[in-house]
Structures
1.
Amino acid sequence: MSDDNWRPQIVAFVCQWCTYAGADLAGTSRIKYDPNVRIVKLPCSGRIGPLFLLKAFEQGADGVLVSGCHPGDCHYVSGNLLARRRFTVFRELLIFLGLEPERLQFSWVSAAEAVKWTEVVDAVTAQIRALGPRRQGWGAEARLQTSNSKAQSLEAQPGTRNLKPGTQKAVEEGIRRIARQLLQTGEAGVIVGYGNGTLKDVTTPLFVTEPEGVEQLVWNERCLNNLSVYLTREPVTRLGRVGIVAKGCDARALVALLQEHQIERDKVTIIGVQCAGMAENGRLAARCAVCDVHTPPLYDHLVEDRALDTGDWAEGDPRDREIAALEALTPAERWAYWQEQFARCIRCYACRAVCPLCYCETCIADKTQPQWVPPAFDARGNLSWNIVRAFHQAGRCIGCDECARVCPAHIRLDLINRKLALLIRDAYGYRAGYDATVAPPLTTFRPEDRAEFIR
Amino acid sequence: MMACRMLRPEKLEEWLAELLRSERRLIAPQRQGEDVVFQPVQTVDDITLDYINTRWPVKAWFFPPSEPVLRYRYQGSGVELEQPNMALEPRVIFGVRPCDAAGLAILDQVFNSDGEDEFYTRRRTMTTIVGLSCTHPAASCFCTSVGLSPTASAGSDLLLTPMGDAGYLVETLTARGEQLLWEYGHYFAAGECRSKEAVTEAAEARMSRQAALAQGIELSERLFEHPIWAEVARKCLGCGVCAYVCPTCHCFDIVDDSDAWGGVRCRNWDSCGFSLFTRHASGHNPRPQQDSRYRQRVLHKFSYFPQRWGRLMCVGCGRCVTNCPVNMDIYATAQAVLQVQGVKHET
Amino acid sequence: MSERYLIEYLSRDSERLPAMRNIYRPHLMTVEDIRDETPDVRTLRLAFQDQAVGESFAFVPGQFGEYSVFGAGECVFAIASSPADRGHVECSFKLMGKVTHALRDVEIGDTVGFRGPYGNGFPLESLRGQNLFFAGGGIGMAALRALIEYCLAHRQEFGHITLLNGARSVADLVYKEDMVRWAEQPDVQLVRTVDPGGETADWDGEVGFVPAIIEKLAPQPEGTVAITCGPPVMIKFALLTLERLGFPQERVITTLENKMKCGLGKCGRCNVGPVYVCKDGPVFTAAQLQALPRDF
């Protein structure tokens, strides 16, 4: 693949108790093994955050190896078991984006396993040497030309189903009635709902503080915004106790915000609305085709849609077919696809701004000490930003797809979100935004969690 | 008055085909998924004329979202500077709508002012803008409200206005345009000079948004402190979409991106809507909340820029309106603010 | 750039193309001296590596520069050295963000970048013949230092000079060595003050916030220009105090410290109303500030 003089640069992040001691033993035992690995020692594999792995790739590593104590041997009881879930998700994310699986490897090596350590290093080095230097995008500034890639023929598939709008007028009346009542009784100081936008076919978030104002509240198939984002916004919450109009997906965000202690249950009144699905480009939005929260999972008042036809969307989520098509590609083709997507990113951070779960006071992308996300909007910076965004949402994203809707460059963030949601559902039996009382999947573990990729 | 010629409809494609074979790089509107975007042309068949406006303004071809303005390498305790290699090639950008071309005229003032920014101006002088008048404005368009028109010539080097079967009226507006016309004169008929007035009027009649915003906003302390800003900005989520799709927004950041051997100093687009935009290292922020940041956006376009440069910094393309995640609408806001100001205006 | 550029390119006369001037290209500077003013304020003395540039470099007190550490980025500070100090610039910075931390790590002999001078500088003509009342708070003194040095170097052109230097605590007072030298000059009154609680047992200066000490010193408005720089809250109250003492707004001068990136009126960051602080400032009279929207 490359010239004979090329030597892979591999960064190994290891735990100080087991693997580092094992590697040390390999050295004092004078076992010969491949010298291409630079070791970074950390207290525990639980401290080996995905950002570190990302940074290594960003700075030019051809491969990254992560190693810690065997399950059960963690010197901090469960650091490696928690890390295992993060590694699983992060690895799958990078593979989905087109990284060859061989470039990011994991192992458990104990302090006694000097030989295993040398075997792991030799095997990983051999695999990465066979792959050759890493492709462009990480470390390279040039943008990839992907004019003829198979991946490019993948185009967004709009929902194929027609809308079944239900009885919008009756629902609208129901929302107004409850809103009026909440404002009149003082239970809410502000109703966060939808109003007519300034252009035809557009609604806009609306904040109603007077009972007379409720007539401006509307309900139709264009109520796309996930309004729960405003519950963590001071300019809105300062208006008083919030009553919020919530579709099923919005209510899932509220569940997640409760779970993460960002809102208090008794300080918000949820006007749940039965929703038949929202429209994008005149058709049913893709995510709505597999909606199982036509009735919100959490509400104080429910506005029923008598004509609600939740349908039988037997064809499933069209995005799942796109994900399958992407996964059928070679890593190089997938990489090219996502490089082309991310090349369009202009870092407007609209994806972040509309996300109800992106509530951090200062986003890690805005932090400069250390500079986790490269500041240039080039292939490297854009890739890192999009990976960081996706990973921080893993196991938390409730699938409202607002990020994908607002992306002015039409980057398929929805595919990434969906891919991770499916992974977490299958691996950990968890879906975000249904139950505020359970622990989020990346904050917990089970001893039997999957580990087939760990050497 | 400018010289004008006609371009027969069947000649347009021939001309573009020859431009494509020339040493000028031809950039023109092409389909990309559901959008139309400016891209270098591979074959003339890729060019589309079926668009109201392109997804992005043409600005990024002169002022890219992110570009190195300096490269450096570490040499011991010293540093070696390198000029970033900015590929300079003669270009023709075909099909720029008058609003976006007017945006370039605004950027010219900023980047050409003392301390000329040659990253921008060199690209500008190497590029000939062939404008294409707009006949069917979108519902979000409001160029006439800000003193422009669907056939305005500001910022174009040549402007083509479709005149029905007769083809395109060609206006030559600058030396660059003249040069192009001189080189390709055989495509252009020197027939009688017709007025584009009827086309302009027809296009303007299709414009649903027609308020009088061109006089700008006259700032007073009362207006600056008025609760209307908090009111309109309440739903603003503070992303950068409006600035990044704007043909005239030009705020930028300068950051270093480096490794162990050296690095680049990059100029990145930035937006006054971001909370970090004005925040001092000490934590003090003169614009601590979104209302003051959105106020800056509106007033910069409708008050500050006009005071300094004598023209509005809004061309009425409507992109910020259609791309805003929460339907912030600068047209509606400007109207509302003018109402507060007490200036008579019509809708 | 002229239209000729394109024509010349097209006529393949490319060797006649002028070399690109890059307004963002900094001068390379060698760190010659490092002085710790306080636990978190440091002064760097920088020499131009290109001697010709150094010899021709001139600035007006009050102008600023973009100082950069290659790899960390650029940062705006006032040029704190005397304009008479040819071939050099000095800057004082407080440890705050990414660039100042990187600047803190440079050593004597290292290379850093400098662009400038930018901004308007102090209106020297309108200061001549006047009594000068300087009031600086904390790192704000850095913006006044060049002017103080200038005035002391041209001592006969100015009337009585009062230097009020305030800080949070005794340890935080900047330019301790300079103050000794300044106080030795004829007709110069040096007043040092620290915030209440910031004094030490042997402190012989004033105790109180800068505006309070201004009030106490009560400079005579007639024939005096007040020049003040410091943190936003100090400036706010210093201006109010000076107004109360009868200073007309035209005779109160301060500097705005907005965040800046380009220094050239392009990046938009320091825009306040119709002005760009980097071009029209950073020096403003209180009267000029009064006309601006409260956006700084």
Note: Residues 4-205 of chain B form one domain.
2.
Amino acid sequence: MRIRTPLWGTLEVADDQLVHLPEGLVGFEDFHRFVLVDVAEYHPFLWLLSTENPSVGFAVAEPRYFREGTYPVTLSATDESHLELAAGDTLAIFVIIAIDAEQCVTANLRGPIVLNTRNRIAKQIIAFGTSLSLREPIRPGLAAPPVSAVEPAVSGA
Amino acid sequence: MLILTRKLGENIRIGDQVKITVLDIKGGQVKLGIDAPPHIAVHREEIYERIREENRRASNVTPRLLREVAGALRTNKKPRRPREGS
């Protein structure tokens, strides 16, 4: 599938980059079709781009950049039915990123996007838990790429 | 909108699976008990409002700003912390 974007020109999009949000995001119920744009210079973030209106997009990331250990997301039976969840399906979880005027990066851990990777159906759910913040700061150090092999010491110098 | 008056301890039934009980009335506050099966999500209205507000805030992030911030993070600059109360 090809989509035209103002920023990246025509993008070739693979099926495993599509995200279908039948209910939209809370407050953005009119947008249902998105693609996950994975551009190296955005890492560790991805850009969730509306294919219905390419000026609408959200920065998302894996929760591990914001929360250590487990992330308690419980799906209701309604959520499972919306995602058409079947045995053997794999879910991916993304958190939506906000950046304030001082460039503080936070993620909304109360309203993650849960994606069924089999059918690419996703939903913004409301996560329970008082420890989950609407504005959780990014964890230090994790955004840096893993250190590559140590430079070999120059012998005989 | 259907409007019902209930006394302390009285219930409202919604369908055959949801029961709402008035547990306490004090000052300007009403404490409600809600019995609902797991497939019915029950949330305070405010959490939707707050998530809507947070989504709106997130929609202000531009690809350009994201690239700038991601670049700064990858060069291992210490992330800025939000100010207290934000």
Note: The beta strands of chain B are 11-14, 18-26, 29-35.
3.
Amino acid sequence: MSIRGKAHIAGIYEHPLREIPDRTLSQIHAEVALGALADAGLTLSDVDGYFCDATVPGMGGLSMVEYLGIRVRYLDNTETGGSSYLGHVGHAAAAIAAGKCSVALVTLAGKPRTSRGGNRGGMSDAPEGSFENLWGLFGAPYGYALAARRHMWEFGTTSEQLAEIKVAASLHAQHNPNALLQQVVTVDDVLGSPMISDPLHRLDCCVVTDGGGAVVVVSPEVARDLERRTAVVLGHGESQKHTDNGRVDLTYTGAVWSGPRAFEEAGVTQADVDYASIYDSFTITVMETIEDLGFCEKGEGGRFVLDGALVAPSGKLPFNTDGGGLCNNHPANRGGMTKILEAVRQLRGEAHPAVQVPDCEIALAHGTGGSLSTRMGSATLILGREDVR
Amino acid sequence: MTEPAELPAPAPQPNLETQPFWDATAEGRFLLKRCDTCGTVIWYPRFLCPDCHGTETSWFEASGRGTIYTFTIVRRGQGPYAGAAPYVAAYVTLDEGPTILTNIVGCPPEQVEIGQPVEVVWHDTGEGSALYRFRPVG
């Protein structure tokens, strides 16, 4: 496949100043963005792809899309030093050719001439930093606890219902000899574990583990010549959710956007999904994601997870059959890789026999990054068994 | 204006866009920005309006009142908050619209509830600024 003729550069802008001591990095990114878009006859509201390097202020592209007040379908933080922006244009063309975005914005900004220490960027310059780092919130649990509390208040969700998610994960982990936690737990065990950040208990939280994983993605031509059974990528969706100019709503995640995009591309529905790997940093992460992916109505997650709904092989939505991040593994504090791995095992029929979903044709894997519902990335993959067409 | 802190009050690190906000906190004034083009209240303060993308904005003084959107009780503090737990972190929806991260003070953590009306109190950082925190009203 070639991107030749599939994309065009429609607007350019060079900042006119050479010394800019009186503006922030964020502001300079915004100024050049507005300039190039104006040159093209477009506005920020038209932008659905954003490309930048790792020197942008804050948490990479997530902070910048929030600052700019945009929400894009394609975000690329590829960092390759001075050649980054050539790469970004190539990536943008490929993404456009593949239908992943239609207006891709690439920005670069720096103040090495007037800012001591040069182009700091990163979290130290996060535009939201001075309003969020003051309140004694350390580590991941607190943001998720804030979401859980609100979900309970709006929908009547209970700690017992959240605990059911941990119980299901533990029922799977008992079959995984590599799982960090292999012991089956009960709802009472979860509720009896120490409170970490109300209303989340220790057993509502994922494990902390070293480790890692990898996947190899190949073309159909390559795959055809391989003996090993593969999983075919049927659909992909991604999204960001941010504080949206103070319109904080902690009861849903970016999965409300990533999910439909993946389902549409794959041409399947929730009813077609035989197995789901659901990102499980905390029990509340799973509950909100199940709702947001459309496996039940918003607010019904608490009832959905009862009666072994998540337990393989016979539950209505078998999930995380490796034990997930809640029991098995959460390497480097990032659970996305392991979500893909277990989905592929299910599609190959190579999950543990006790938790293998019979005739598993369609699997979903969902990843969550950042802080739930406030500054987060979501990505949904839908995979098919090799013979799915 | 400001009163002694019952929680640690680490100093913020203002940047060129947020300096006016933090300067006003030293006088016990809670400033917000409003977009001159579409009228939207902007949070956090920045160069452009994240709603309409207009770049003309104006500061105004907020009421300092709001309601609790959600909260959690922190059981173990770190850094400047070591030894300060238990304390309450919360999102508060300001009467002017935006929902912002903060602490709830002035009442025992177990008495905090979603939906409670609150008002701002200022905790001096000792470095020319004050932190906005909120306490239940009435």
Note: Residues 261 and 361 of chain A are 20 Å apart (CA to CA).
4.
Amino acid sequence: MDSSVTIATVILSISLILSRILYVIYWSGRPLRNKSLGPVSTLIVLGSGGHTAEMLNVLSVLQKDLFSPRFYIAAATDNMSLQKARTYENQLADKNEAEVDKIAQFMQIYRSREVGQSYFTSVWTTLIATLHALWLMIKIRPQVILCNGPGTCIPLCLIAFIFKVLGIRWSSIFYVESIARVKRLSLSGLILYKLYVADQFFVQWPQLQRIYPRAHYVGCLM
Amino acid sequence: FTPVLQGVSGCIIKLGMGDSEVGGKLTRMVFVTVGTTSFDALVRAVDTEQVKQILYARGYTHLLIQMGRGTYNPTKSHGEDGLVVDYFSFSSSIADHLKSASLVISHAGSGSIFETLRLGKPLIVVVNEDLMDNHQIELAEELAERKHLYCARPQTLHQTIESLNLESIIPYTPGDAKPVAALINRFLGFPED
């Protein structure tokens, strides 16, 4: 008798969770009915080299007072990207550094696996990286996430999705596939597309849009 | 009016972007860049006599190589009977070198590619076949198909330089992020412009 109650409870909880996940996926792809039109806290995930240049291009055409405050995250091993973001923010604030601190924050995140690291040690580093990502996401709880490819965006976006399911924070995740991807998506892009984690998915080449019909073709950013 | 000068190889060379005349002597620099990577196969390829002779015959006078984390050091030369060759590992003034170059030979990183295309410089992208996940070939080949640049492998670089036809290059029109911004704004219920 007890066991059948347990089984019923388990089945009920699983179906409740599943229906909540389906509900989140259904509403994730749909435009917000944003009536307040107030500024949204924005998390920007940066990656090395070309990724950062593309992301700063996107930022340069967004209205800065609507996407505010801004949180920049880059891998702990990547020194260049945050530097570039800081330079960009300083230019916006016209070199008023006190002003920059109010509207922009720069953070580093541990990577789950460095190039060439063994799979055994990467179990631990993945755990640490995930906990670190969770900690950052609890602190930031962004309303908007902008990312374009570096692997560091995966744990952050998955946590954001879980926050949506749990009702902690509803965030809109925008993913712009890198211009370097012409025929195939990157692994990060593929994961976020297939799992319906990205609210809007942008590609820069028409070939990709034909293979991934839910993506929006937006032309070259560079 | 396009200034026309007698080139070193005897052929007539039109002064293009990046060419500069110092004390009556024409400088036409080839800038080779591997970015933050190591790409010794490319540095070795441009350091061969074959490639250097073709470059010299085509009227280039200087060869400057940015070799990144590579370990192969090319042979320096003061240009007694050929190209002036120099190299360095990293520099904060890559943009200046790109601006003063008449021809750029680059690795397939999207940063280098678009920086060069925006400057309107003739560009040969050399694909690094030793990279494991070499998706960069896709971008170089796509842009080569659209005639914005030439695409080569280290071992075919000399043929590419030999058959280089600067007239056939279609200038790249820089893209912009406005369509992305408009979609993001529409999604969030913000004004679209």
Note: Residues 1-12 of chain B have pLDDT under 50 and may be disordered.
